[in-house]
Amino acid sequence: MGWACVAPLQQALAVVGDDIAWLSAAERERWAGFSGIQRRRQFVAGRWLARRLLAHVGAGAAELGLEPDGRCSAPPPWRVSISHSGDWIGVAVAAAGLAGLDLQVENPGRDWRALAAFAGLQPCPDPAYFYRHWTLAEAWLKAHPDIHSLSALRGLRWQPDAVGPAWHGQVGDLHWAFVGAAAPEWVTGLLPQSLRPAAGEGWAPLSVA
């Protein structure tokens, strides 16, 4: 089973405040390596929300790790995935299963056609189609620690499948995708204005080159 929480970034930052002493030494080193203030804020909010969500679903005060590629890790059997886009921060966790979450806010100035070609996505006729397949691919990448780059998924294709293992949905201009054993259970009590999206559409990978 998997759980996810998606909330406004500012709501998390208002709770966290300026104190980062609760971060591990490795996390503080990673935080210091970001030159942009916004990226530092996203990092802190994501790690804080990951701890809160893990505690909420019964993992206790799980000590989070930091993989060389920047991914967040949790003690077995827990898996954790963090994503952020625009004004949103999201975390997904699962016990003894896959957990991959990706968020993407539609950006009118983004050259989605060029990104689709770069990522090797199947032909995308419009932005909504692009964002669906982009988030699905990113969530698949995050759920599989043995895949280290989106370029490794250039041959990935998707087909509708009610049982997943991937789900996609949209709330306004925010697209979300989750990869796991089942569609995520949305947790809304951790932060004000957390989202409870409608049930997403199920998708399954058709092929990986």
TrEMBL record:
Residues 37-94 form the 4'-phosphopantetheinyl transferase N-terminal domain. InterPro entries: 4-PPantetheinyl_Trfase_dom_sf (IPR037143), 4PPT_N (IPR041354). It holds the Pfam family 4PPT_N. This is 4'-phosphopantetheinyl transferase N-terminal domain-containing protein. It comes from Roseateles saccharophilus (Pseudomonas saccharophila).
